[in-house]
Amino acid sequence: MSTQTINLQFDWTTVAESTPYAPAAFEFVQRGLDYTTDLVERESEENHFGLDELDHHVTGQQLCMGLRDYAIASYGTLAPVVLRHWDVYRTDDFGAIVYHMADLHLLRTSPQDSIDDFRGVFDFDEAFHQHSLRECIGAFE
């Protein structure tokens, strides 16, 4: 997935229509994609791998992990509560949101991408377990 520039005053309500997800979930995924792309680029630079224009792409698995980290960095121990409030319960939901946004031309996917890349990447109960979250808080700053 790769991001396209979205106006800061974008109306996510229209995007969320006909989906089970809250408008805020779409904005979260958009911002989380930027967050994840930045992480992947920084890791590549630290490992001395140069990225060309085509390498500003993240896989579904990378995005899921980045969205987990972004949720924790943004909401701390409330991350799972916020995601549930938006009707996001598993990584498959991230995929549904991403592909809905791609259908609306709000982001791009590559031919190698598949919605299956989002299936079962991690278990939300394990990834957002309160004990684990307390250990993670502050690690993403």
Structure description:
Helix content is 54%, strand content 3%. It has 141 residues and is mostly helical. It has a two-stranded antiparallel ribbon with strand order 1-2. The protein starts with a strand and ends in a 5-residue tail after the last helix. The protein has one domain. It has 7 helices and 2 strands. The model has no long low-confidence stretch (mean pLDDT 85).
Q: Total strand count, please? A: 2
Helix tally? 7
Unreliable residue stretches:
none
Could you tell me the mean pLDDT? Answer: 85
Strand count, sense and barrel status of the largest sheet are:
2 strands, antiparallel
Strand arrangement in the largest pleated sheet: 1-2
Radius of gyration: 15 Å
Helix content: 40-55%
First and last CA, distance = 24 Å
Structural class: mainly alpha
Order of helix and strand elements from N to C terminus: EHHHHHEHH
Q: Looking at the structure, what is the overall shape? A: globular
**Number of self-contained structural domains:** 1
